[in-house]
Amino acid sequence: MSQEGESKRLSKKGFVTQTPEGDLLLVNEKGDAYKVNESVVAVWNIFEDKTVNEVINEIASQINVDPNEIKPAIEQLTAQLVEAELLA
């Protein structure tokens, strides 16, 4: 991820819902739904006008791990959420 991407503040878009079977869905403002797990929803919920690095540091402190351990996974997830128009 570029330096610009790391300093850009992102906020969640759309909403979370559940299927009758109990599957979690993130739905963007166009109505496109993506099946996700609780971890994805937890990360998505943290994005309220925050940079990727701020989110990485917040999650790392919550689960007591080195931020560098989770950085690649969070950056990849963030890119997917931006592409799915669930973060902007």
TrEMBL record:
Pfam families cross-referenced by the UniProt entry: PqqD
Designated name of the protein: PqqD family protein
Biological source species: Caldiarchaeum subterraneum
Domain of life: Archaea
InterPro entries with a match to the protein in the record: PQQD, PqqD_sf
